[in-house]
Design brief:
- This is CFA46 protein.
- InterPro entries: CFAP46 (IPR039586).
- By secondary structure, the protein is α/β, with parallel strands linked by helices.
- The chain has one domain (about 1-125).
- It has helices at about 1-5, 25-35, 55-60, 75-85, 90-95, 100-110, 125-140, 145-154, and strands spanning about 40-45, 65-75, 115.
- Helix 3 (about 55-60) links the parallel strand 1 and strand 2 (about 65-75).
- The two termini are about 25 Å apart.
């Protein structure tokens, strides 16, 4: 919340979405957010794809979304329990499709222009630092996404 407020004046368009513990978005909300945005940010627990239905995502056409930033793969005891209970009911192939590379490919196939995603588990604090770096370089310095990825790799 603090990071979004810090960069609020640099956003050219209106920011909308679900922030904090307001509620868990429904599949309809995910669809509305992804289809009506030029950029999408997910900052949350576990894998992004564990929150959306695979069959729903692959059927989508979202070419207006030019950038998806996935700051996921954060684990707590509660989120680990939730994901473990969820994964029991999924095939191995379905769980494999939730990995970062596969998620980026699926989003790309739906029409997303660029995907920036974490590749390994980290803490909320580490992802907050990544988000701060991303927004600073994207909005304050006007860097391109490829340049930002190079900054994040350092």
């Amino acid at each position: 919340q603090k990071i979004l407020e810090k960069y609020h004046d640099l956003f050219r368009l209106q920011w909308e979405g679900v922030i904090g513990n307001m509620h868990a978005p429904s599949q309809a909300e995910w669809e509305q957010l992804l289809t009506n945005c030029s950029a999408f940010l997910f900052y949350g627990m576990e894998r992004f794809m564990s929150h959306v239905l695979l069959s729903w995502l692959v059927a989508m056409n979202i070419p207006k979304c030019r950038l998806v930033i996935l700051l996921d793969l954060v684990r707590s005891r509660q989120s680990y329990q939730r994901i473990t209970n969820s994964d029991i009911h999924k095939s191995g192939l379905r769980v494999a499709l939730e990995r970062p590379t596969e998620t980026a490919m699926l989003l790309s196939l739906t029409g997303v222009g660029s995907v920036i995603a974490t590749q390994w588990y980290s803490s909320l604090e580490e992802n907050a630092e990544r988000l701060e770096t991303l927004l600073e370089n994207l909005l304050s310095f006007g860097k391109m996404t490829g340049q930002i990825v190079h900054v994040l790799q350092k």
